[in-house]
Amino acid sequence: MKKHFYLLACLAMGFVACSDDEVGPDTPTPEPQELPDWYYTGGELGTTFNSSSTAFEDPTPVVDADATMTASFNRGEQFFEKPYTSNFEGMRHGLGPVYIRTSCQHCHPGYGHGQSQPAGSFNTNNIGNGYLLVVYNPETNAYVSWLAGMPQTHAVAPFKEPLDETQIQLTWHEYTDSWGNKFPDGETYQLRYPEVEIPQSAVYVYNKGYDLGNYDVRLESTIGIYGTGLLDAISDEDLKAEYTKQEREGYLKNGLNPNIFANGDWVGQYANTAQGGDGTKYPYRYTYALSRGPLQDAAGANAFWNITNATRSDRRFHYLDAAGTYAKYSSEDPEVQAGFRAYIEQADPEHNHADWHIQNPDGTYNEQQNIYNYLTSKELDVEVSDQDYIDLMVWHRGLAVPAARNVDDEAVLRGKELFEQLNCTYCHKPSWTTGSDEIRDPARFFVGEKADQLPRYPNQKIWPYTDMIQHKLHMVNDIRTGWCRTTPLWGRGLHQRCTGAEYADRLHDCRARTTMEAIMWHGTDPQSDAYEQIVKFRELSKEDRDAVVKFLDSI
């Protein structure tokens, strides 16, 4: 099917997003004529025609068409961009007592994918460092219990950071594949991968006497957040149909993750009973690890709380480690005890929380118990209002996807054809058609009038180039468990333009500096689900290989 609304969209936007000043130098403005479906990556309701450095920041046409939603989107954008503070009142207060970053944009520069970081120390104060430290037990692949799942490397005095990031070391290793990093025609390429080391001495509770046991560390970078509302609009039924199809066909040698789907049905699904949810189950669809269900309780909704530890009405407790080690050892720390009274008198000057101000028989404060009660409290004061949270999620669900570029370029069209012929589209499924897009929230916050405030994208043909399913590539120093959800490819070719990154930063840990490197990492092990595709890719001429790359950088 062809569409004709490009000119109308430009007129409606006053030619702002479609002017020659706004598009990139390699992206000539298309003529207002018939264009292919795949040009409109987000469908009629989710595509922006901006390909400048702000391409990831635009609201969808759905948001643009509603003044109330636009105002909410703009307010939510501020909560993404601006830093939180450790103040006890005022705008964006409530940072800490321990936290990961001061703002969302630290991890998502230009609203996109995190940037790879140079070798050396691990500095999360750098905007662009979107790396999350995955600390796990290599024997079980489970996250360690003595750190939060997203480890915190900062603290507000008198508390101590759970992890001293100045001791964390990042190293890049060169890698040579079985083909000697060379194509049959002699053209060469480079490969590298990251390794991160966290010594025991960097862990706060270890220095207090806790036995950490065996652990290992991997890196995962944040992904682009544009278009996530459109992915949420894919129906649960269509997701299940894709799983069922792949299981029936048995095309991929590693099959499906048995912890998620087997024998034609879900094995594991996402549910929430901790933050007001009723336990209703939903298919996993977000994060590399497929750890989250619908967007309204997915990574962004979670990060708006746990990155800063700023409380909401549905999360009136601190984000800490599962084992309770930080609360225990902090309460026993003489230095924390010495500074706690000054801290808590600012946090609760009217002593509304009596269990934070318990006194001993002699009239002194029992600070060990008070600290423990504060850190483990389930009744913290609300720091992020419900409307602030709604605004953030209107923004999150309201981000558009940049239209494809160079859609009339012969090399791009040739690359698209080859990408399909190589069967790369089996995992990088080109398109989906969204369902009715009913708002689903496992945490039961976005229901009724709150749900009605969110943008929706029913019955849209979208082009994310992902099957929303996990597969295995068997790369050296691979992702935890080896299972990784197929990353959407839409907009990835604009990463450097939008984020200012030095490299293309592809794959889950930004190991690929170029699109070509990302392709070749898919075939470094014969057990990779994409190995046969890379064998065939190697047989292409240089002109055809470059065409595939140009296509991938244009969608």
Structure in words:
With 555 residues, the protein is α+β, with helices and mostly antiparallel strands. Helix content is 27%, strand content 9%. The strands form seven sheets. The chain has a three-stranded antiparallel beta sheet with strand order 3-6-7. It has a two-stranded parallel sheet with strand order 1-11. Strands 2-5 form a two-stranded antiparallel ribbon. A hairpin with a 2-residue loop joins strand 9 and strand 10. Helix 4 (67-81) packs across helix 12 and helix 9 (325-331) runs antiparallel to helix 11 (367-376). The two termini are 18 Å apart. Mean pLDDT is 94; it is low at 1-29.
Features:
single chain, 9% strand, disordered N terminus, 27% helix, globular, 18 helices, 555 residues, three-stranded antiparallel sheet, two-stranded parallel ribbon, alpha+beta
- Biggest sheet: strands side by side, in what order? 3-6-7
Helical fraction equals 25-40%
The fraction of residues in strands falls at 5-15%
State mean pLDDT (0 to 100 scale). Answer: 94
N- to C-terminal separation? 18 Å
Integer-rounded radius of gyration: 24 Å
Any low-confidence stretches, pLDDT <50, length ≥5? 1-29
Largest sheet: 3 strands, antiparallel
Tally the helices: 18
Shape: globular
Number of DSSP strands? 15
- Helix-strand category: alpha+beta
Summarize the structure.
The protein has helices at residues 6-12, 43-46, 61-64, 67-81, 204-207, 228-232, 236-249, 299-306, 325-331, 334-347, 367-376, 386-397, 410-421, 449-452, 495-499, 515-521, 531-538, 542-552; strands at residues 47-48, 98-99, 120-121, 131-136, 154-155, 169-175, 191-197, 216-221, 261-262, 265-266, 401-402, 432-433, 461-462, 470-471, 484-485. With 555 residues, the chain is of the alpha+beta class.
